[in-house]
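In this supplementary section we document a worked example of the pipeline. Step one takes a protein sequence of length 84 as its only input; no multiple sequence alignment statistics are reported here. Step two produces a three-dimensional model, which step three serialises into structure tokens for compact storage. The input and output of this example are shown verbatim.
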Amino acid sequence: MGRSGAHNGQTLGKQTADLRVVRDDGEPVGFGVGVLREVVFKILFGVVITGGLFLLVDALWPLFDRQGLALHDIAMQTRVVEVE
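The serialised model returned by step three reads:
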């Protein structure tokens, strides 16, 4: 996620789907933001602490958010966009 260059903000899955994570302030997604977003919010909090309940709420949240953002995107001030 925190790679430099053309694939910044992309996992292999996002590369395949032509998607990228970008920060709201225009800065590239760094290592720290990537770790917090993927490991802390999705794995530690999402699975270990809440037993998966957070992941369910997080996955459904974009259906009700005007901008289509998940909770982990709101917390990390990121969004997923299509690669042009």
